[in-house]
From TrEMBL:
Name recorded for this polypeptide: Sodium potassium-dependent ATPase beta-2 subunit
InterPro entries in the record: Na/K_ATPase_sub_beta, Na/K_ATPase_sub_beta_sf
Domain of life of the source: Eukaryota
Pfam families (alphabetical): Na_K-ATPase (PF00287)
Key words of the record: Membrane, Signal-anchor, Transmembrane, Transmembrane helix
Predominant localisation class: membrane
Transmembrane segments: 65-86
Membrane topology of the entry: Single-pass type II membrane protein
UniProt source species: Nesidiocoris tenuis
Length: 334
């Protein structure tokens, strides 16, 4: 049998109507001696069957119609899925809250100003009070963060001044006046104390939708581990409404840090007032702040500081990989 041919079998019928097999030999086409350029041209367009890139125009048309219909169906299915997802979510209210959400029920703390490379693990607030450029950069960082507190609300009359006996009315949120005299040295006008080697660090409580603090508002039932100076501060409060506060305390983390940290003051109060809670994604809501004023921290010494909140439903952990209810930062003045 020749290697240049192929055997093809055909089935037919003879004159008597009986089927019989016939065989035909199909011989290979003679090999064409084409140059590389001619082969390339033939691949683009083959005049023998009028094909372009291996397909005739009608074949390309059918293929195009198929993919248009295929991707159109995919697009419709995708839009149906997205529409279904949007129907199951609410722009204002999360589907899962508190214990059923990934955030959980334990709020964290944050601090400002933050170093530029904070996300890389650097928590050192390094200031040079005698260097105007350095001071101005930290002041600008704080001013930028507090811009939302100073800017007027998008909705006129949406903010009101609140107090423990006068919380926000429906449709309004409590204002946080960061330029008032209640903040002591911790205002932009005083450059937040940065130029006088007595810096202010602002602490904020992260938002958790629907979280309502359980306060330590019974002076006879304060936790044993609460700092004595905070206990004394709470017991001196005469207005029982003011006891509905998420208290905050700060301290140096090591004996050396405790010695170097110096005296501290907190503005406007030593905690986050209860009339700011719960957070329910109100339009124009402002998170309350507490300013920690380090009056005379030691110079040229790295001071590790930890601040934590005190509420019955706020868990505390100082573990570096699982910090809860607290925040760590470091202060260095040169």
């Amino acid at each position: 049998m020749s290697k240049s041919g192929q055997l093809a079998k055909k089935v037919g019928r003879n004159a008597g109507g009986q089927s019989e097999n016939t065989y035909e030999w199909e011989f290979a086409k003679p090999k064409e001696n084409l140059t590389t350029g001619e082969k390339f041209k033939r691949a683009i367009y083959d005049p023998s069957d009028g094909s372009y890139l291996g397909r005739t125009p009608i074949m390309w048309l059918k293929l195009m119609i198929f993919y248009i219909i295929f991707y159109l169906i995919l697009a419709i299915l995708f839009m149906i899925c997205i529409y279904g997802l949007l129907l199951s979510t609410n722009e204002k209210y999360p589907t899962y809250t508190l214990g059923s959400s990934l955030i959980g029920t334990n709020p964290g703390l944050g601090f400002r100003p933050m170093p530029d490379n904070f996300l890389e693990g650097n928590a050192v607030i390094w200031m040079i009070p005698s260097n105007k450029t350095n001071v101005d950069s930290w002041v600008a960082s704080m001013d930028d963060y507090l811009t939302v507190y100073k800017s007027p609300p998008t909705k006129k009359g949406a903010r009101q001044m609140c107090d423990y006996d006068s919380p926000a009315t429906e449709g309004k949120v409590c204002n946080v006046d960061v330029d008032s005299s209640d903040w002591g040295m911790c205002t932009s006008a005083h450059k937040y104390g940065f130029a006088k080697s007595s810096p202010c660090v602002f602490i904020k409580l992260n938002r958790i939708y629907g979280w309502v603090p359980e306060y330590y508002n019974n002076t006879n039932d304060l936790p044993a581990e609460m700092p004595d100076d905070l206990k004394t501060y709470i017991k001196k409060i005469k207005d029982v409404n003011m006891l509905n506060t998420v208290w905050i305390s700060c301290h140096g983390e090591t004996p050396t840090d405790k010695e170097n940290i110096g005296p501290m003051e907190m503005y406007p109060v030593r905690g986050f007032p209860g009339y700011y809670y719960p957070f329910t994604n109100q339009d124009g809501y402002l998170s309350p702040l507490v300013a920690i004023h380090f009056r005379r921290p030691a110079m040229h010494s790295l001071i590790a500081v930890e601040c934590r909140i005190w509420a019955k439903n706020a868990q505390y952990s100082k573990a570096a990989n699982d910090r809860q209810g607290s925040v760590h930062f470091e202060l260095l003045l040169d």
